[in-house]
Amino acid sequence: GAVVSQHPSRVICKSGTSVKIECRSLDFQATTMFWYRQFPKQSLMLMATSNEGSKATYEQGVEKDKFLINHASLTLSTLTVTSAHPEDSSFYICSASGGKGHEQFFGPGTRLTVL
Amino acid sequence: DAKTTQPPSMDCAEGRAANLPCNHSTISGNEYVYWYRQIHSQGPQYIIHGLKNNETNEMASLIITEDRKSSTLILPHATLRDTAVYYCIVRVLNTGNQFYFGTGTSLTVIP
User: Fold this and answer.
1) Which residues of B touch A107 (CB under 8 A)?
2) CB pair distance less than 8 Å for B43 and A108
3) Is B94 on the interface with A (CB under 8 A)?
4) What pLDDT, in 10s, does the model give residues B78-111?
5) At B80, phi and psi to the nearest 5?
6) N or C: chain B end with fewer CB closer than 10 Å?
């Protein structure tokens, strides 16, 4: 199946700093990428949908100025958590679609810990 | 919002078939049923999807009732590596359409 990577896999940062997470589709062109957040023992929560070359669409309750999403190419989307706080600590997962059919292919996730 | 209902947890003996149910009573005619699973601290993995016919692949079988209001994912011979949270999702077939995850079923395969 199609491969989606994320970098970094784990990051620890101080409160108030910004963190960038990359999501790459390695063997297909992803016209659409999605970002999810998952807190411990909870399900995945969709944060935003991004289409290549256009602004992301955010889900209700997700602050677009805090979670900056860029989808500049068909293989790369980035999520920047600005001015991170401890409550932003979570598992962030991206997915991509547009290659082989209509499934979404998920990345391995990024564990963010804000001290 | 998630449009599916699944039992929160299930156990299955290793080597036996695991049957995971999902209710989607409000499914629309153009919505597919997808199954994904998530092993602890990893990204979800695609398993199978279907519209109205039963489907089978190398991982699992999907049985959809005739009225499409429920479905069952069958893992024919469960192994310890099948221990995971299984998510049933309904979605219109389109690359740009979002997946909304419900709470899923935590399957534990017991030796």
Assistant:
1) 43
2) yes
3) yes
4) 999 999 999 999 987 665 678 889 899 999 999 9
5) -60, -30
6) N
